[in-house]
Amino acid sequence: MPKNKKRNTPHRGGSGGGGSGAAAATAGGQHRNVQPFSDEDASIETMSHCSGYSDPSSFAEDGPEVLDEEGTQEDLEYKLKGLIDLTLDKSVKTRQAALEGIKNVLASKMFYEFILERRMTLTDSIERCLKKGKNDEQRAAAALASVLCIQLGPGIESEEILKTLGPVLKKIICDGTASIQARQACATSFGVCSFIATDDITELYSTLECLENIFTKSYLKEKDSNVICSTPNTVLHISSLLAWTLLLTICPISEVKKKLEMHFHKLPSLLSCDDVNMRIAAGESLALLFELARGMESDFFYEDMESLTQMLRALATDGNKHRAKVDKRKQRSVFRDVLRAVEERDFPTETVKFGPERMYIDSWVKKHTYDTFKEVLGSGMQYHLQSNEFLRNVFELGPPVLLDAATLKTMKISRFERHLYNSAAFKARTKARSKCRDKRTDVGEFF
């Protein structure tokens, strides 16, 4: 049988009108039923063949920036419908690409009404992929859960999503047999979704305890050892620590005091980890804890201040030859700011520009919150800062600024203009390097 005819044959065992299947368009414009996936992967013969809006890999590769520039709202909603259907596909790769495609689209624009109508369908798909999927599929599902809650913001809808997905995310985080990447993504997602949607204070405390049980495993256990050796679980511990720190910023003062007493004297041990990302995460968390403590008590006193500042100063001026130059440069930059925060109660203000607006990040709490959502939304962060009411409330930006189409067009740089600008910058750098090389050559010939 020719290939082009074989593509349009239905899945083996597929029946028309089944309620469990979801419709997706094929190359011929006809409709077929997509069977809900089973635990086993589909064989090559039964694997889905998708085209047009139903090809999920193209959306996953394009990313938010391309979708934001080329797709109208209606086009993207049409694509989203196809991608949502494909989360039920038998093929693991198709489901994963569909999840990533949905996440990219939702990170690029606001689809509040569209998502509101389909939140239960999306939640069910994410739950199935978390429970039945493995590794990358679980990671993609967890990432989509975060963006889904960001789209909907705080309210009963997000609370329902967290009630459904929270126990599943928690189970994967604590499951030692699950992949580290999946557990890491679930820890971040659990923290973000809880930050947005948790209404019950006891549930918030339970989430904090779950994350604590993960990252505290990196605390220095042996007194004779001065260095914490990184393990494959270190990336999970880092994500758990950062998610825990984020949730601590919305806790009542009584709970913050309790957590400070528990962790203030243990957290500095993570500064001796041989993983640079763990050292940085621990340093920034410490700076945030000091900020919270001094916000509650202006005369807050830390007993081991001298030894702590010595450690921070050593990391801020680290010159160990066995460490990579990039890691040392990154570490020194961060710990100079951390040292200033601990010693001088100072924070170097950062400015974030988006559209006609700008936001000043003037505290460690604000910086950590911004960094967390930037990690989830990627290049879509600027758009959401302009349009997402939830994020604007978090950062106290007020209601969204309404701009007419003409103003937006004058502000927007086309892809061609960006290409010209980057090309000119590249040529300038190349010319500068050539001149520098010529000077070195002349000096060498002179001597």
UniProtKB/TrEMBL annotation:
Polar residues: bias regions: 45-57
Pfam families found in the cross-reference section: IFRD, IFRD_C
Residue ranges with Basic residues bias: 1-10
Region of interest (Disordered), ranges: 1-72
Keyword terms, alphabetized: Developmental protein, Differentiation
UniProt keyword annotation of Ubl conjugation present: no
Biased composition (Acidic residues): 62-72
Domain Interferon-related developmental regulator C-terminal intervals: 388-441
InterPro entries: ARM-like (IPR011989), ARM-type_fold (IPR016024), IFRD (IPR039777), Interferon-rel_develop_reg_C (IPR006921), Interferon-rel_develop_reg_N (IPR007701)
Family note: Belongs to the IFRD family.
This protein's name: Interferon-related developmental regulator 1
